[in-house]
Amino acid sequence: PVPTLVSSLKHVLFFSRINMLLVILPFALLAQPLGLPPAWAFVANFVVIVPLAQLLGVATEEVALYSTEMIGGLLNATLGNATEVIISVFAIRAGLLRVVQVSLLGSILSNLLLVLGCSFIAGGIRFREQRYSAKMAAVNCSLLKMAVLGLMIPTALVSTMRANCAVPCHVVQIEQISHGTAVVLFVVYVGLLLFQLRTHAYLHEADNPNE
Questions:
Q1: What does pTM read for this prediction?
Q2: Contact 63, 72 (CB under 8 A)
Q3: Alpha-carbon distance 211 to 202, whole Å?
């Protein structure tokens, strides 16, 4: 039988025991308006992020079932970082730049080390040999280099200008460089989407005999 909206919602909400933590959601939303201690509000919101992030991943996977494998992977990669993006936006508005920096660093390290390592281990358990697209590996390495440069340029500018520029001028110039770098990286990401979905979609087929 075709699943109804109610049955689909029940499946999404109750398929995992982690979703039981959603009962804390009203408390997390009302913690600040009720004047509860900041530590309580932080713990409640921290705990409720876990099931919400899982629900976001499940919803993305469900959408990917009705699309191609490449689109599903892009959805997972894009929406999978929605939690970090939301936290970064609110932290920047609150002036907590150090929180944003640590969040980005943790996200980069977890994806490069934890996620990639677990993928290699899981694939190695099932398959004796694993094959990867050399072309896509080169593309990803190039993107990684650009991302590293995007992080290094403002840092290098701070180091070279700290002793030769007043603080207000220093801050303004660093912000301009950071904004320009962010725009460039966003344009590169849009170009990657066009590359993977439009111009060179044939390179990402799972049954490519050349890779």
A1: 0.61
A2: yes
A3: 12
